[in-house]
Design brief:
ribonucleoprotein; alpha/beta; 5 strands; 140 residues
């Protein structure tokens, strides 16, 4: 299944994708930088900035936990949180997920699916994963 992430809400899309992965489907998500996080821009930025800075709060020399900055990796991490990742079933399901920034050449002519229950509709507050990634210092 190939999903176009443009205009979808992050949590809703991630929950649908995690269900499909647990059913054994291979899922490819394109345009991950255009997935929308609802809420104010200040709240969304502070949430992800706090996760990235977490490694140095208690011990600056400690090197974890790592949290991604790129939009495709943020989406993958969100889906991973919805899977039983510490069990073999969840780990195998997570291997079936591919996420990309933009549309790679091999998927140009493929038919892309949109998930109607994950569409943003008329959301007033929100920002795209690409914007948050740029604020966090990602290079993509």
């Amino acid at each position: 299944m190939i999903i176009n992430g443009e205009g979808h809400i992050l949590g809703r899309l991630a929950s649908v994708v995690s269900q499909k992965l647990l059913e054994g489907e291979e899922v490819v998500v394109l345009n991950a930088e255009k997935i929308i996080i609802t809420g104010s821009k200040q709240w969304a930025y502070s949430k992800y900035k706090q996760r990235i800075d977490r490694a140095s709060i208690s011990n600056p020399r400690r090197m974890g936990p790592k949290y991604p900055r790129r939009p495709d990796d943020i989406f993958r991490r969100t889906v991973r949180g919805m899977l039983p990742y510490r069990k073999s079933r969840g780990r195998e399901a997570f291997k079936g997920l591919k996420a990309y920034v933009g549309v790679p050449r091999e998927f140009k002519d493929e038919e892309m699916v949109e998930i109607p229950e994950a569409r943003a509709g008329n959301i007033k507050k929100g920002m795209e994963l690409g914007e948050i990634s740029e604020l966090l210092g990602a290079k993509f």
